[in-house]
Amino acid sequence: MRRIAAKYLYTLTSPEPIRNGFVELDYDGSVVRTGVSEEPSCEEEWYDGAVVPGFVNAHCHVELSYLKGMFRKGSGMAGFIDQINALRDTTTRERKIAALRGQMNAMWDAGVTAMADISNCDDSFSVKATHPMYTRTFLEVFGTEPEDCPSIIESVRELKARAMSFGLDAAPTPHACYTMSPELLTAASIEGLKSGFLSYHSEESPEEEEMLISGSGPMWENRKAAGMSTPPVTGEISLKYFLGRLMGALETPVDGNVLLVHEVCLNEYGAAIARRILAHPFIAVCPRSNLFIHNALPPIELMRKSGIPICVGTDSLSSNDSLDMVSELRCIQENFSEVPLGEMLIWACRNGAEFLGKRAILGSIEPGKRPGIVLIDGLSPEGRLTDASASRRLV
User: Fold this and answer.
1) Tell me: domain 55-323, CATH 2.60.120.620, correct?
2) Where does the chain have alpha helices with state H?
3) Selecting from 3.40.630.30, 3.40.50.150, 2.30.40.10, 3.40.50.300, what CATH number does the domain 1-54+360-395 have?
4) Residues 255-277: pLDDT tens digits?
């Protein structure tokens, strides 16, 4: 039996911490009980910080870890896509795997217990198969030309079979409205929802919205100059376009856990139709990535009011300086100071576990669960994050 106590214990059964709380753990990391440490014993580990469950990184592209430090900031989405196209596959497979393995190990040590990861190839499969971190792999689908839809779907089915041969939970997922023909967007969504999960880049930038609303802007010009087909100009927000493709092919409300990633341009109308059309919608915010690419932030207050569960992701090292969850939370705190730490931790732990279908074992510190136990230190006297705050795994 191991007993860990801290100034703040966030079980996340509620946003409020237990002051001077403890958690007792069985030999396999299972939670036995929690409580208030009124008379600490010599066998108790005590920490001057916050003890929290393991994080769930709800959006990552770990296979892009080899691109760390190679991208210029503030390029906008069109400029970012140009950089991805120029820099992708500029090193060996061995170096890519070494880089992603190093980042997964660093995330694990910093307390990430589970991850929703985006993959375009099989580079990460062997590492994930032997890693203690749980991952659900979303096999991202691209393709702007309608005639390519059947061959692309067949190719991603083959990639799924390879992922499953490694024992991974994996399924196709659509990338975004601007990289897919309408036919492929629908087909990939149907294929992915067979697994019960989708992760979709949605309303990441104003440039994306310009494409759908008015057929203009840098991303529209970028696609036209490359000779690629462009998405239909609907005069509506891109989120409505995506949901419309689902409505045209599936019964509503659409079943399955659907993660809308980024949603920098979300408005009340979009949130309302997402709640109406999706049975289980989630939002993943990646604020440092949004600042990196186009110096924008998601509308956190609107998201809180929407009632759609918020999750937290890091995105990739092509659009971020690190894959550090505490840095994402600190960014949220700095820009939305009204959000308490306990609520942010629910986003970063409990909601992510719920999206992944792992709430029975992850996301909160409750008897019988094995969420991992993480220390966040360097808190202010009021219990808020500071520039010195960092996390490390205890269990």
Assistant:
1) no
2) 76-87, 93-109, 125-130, 149-165, 182-193, 206-214, 218-225, 238-247, 268-277, 287-294, 300-306, 325-335, 341-345, 352-355
3) 2.30.40.10
4) 999 999 999 999 999 999 999 99
